Amino acid sequence: MAKVRLKKRFVAGAKCPKCKASDSIVLFMEQGIETVECVECDYREQQTEDKVAQKAGGDVIGVFKP
Ligand SMILES: [Zn+2]
C-alpha cells in the first residue's frame, strides 16, 4: 500500500493520557477516520463511529428509537 502523506496537526493544549506530555497530540484523518496520536509515545486512538456513539452516551448501532 502506498504511503499517503497525512496532514497532521497538533491539538493545542491537549495532554497525552498515557505519557502526560503536553502539546504532543496530533490529529489527522486516516482512511476517513479521525485519529489522534501522541508524538512522544505510542498512544493512539481512532474516533470510530462506535466510539463516538459511546462517548455520546448512546447505544447507536444503526437503530433509530422512537
Ligand atoms: Zn504520549
TrEMBL record:
One Pfam entry name: DUF2387
Protein name, as recorded: YheV family putative metal-binding protein
Origin superkingdom: Bacteria
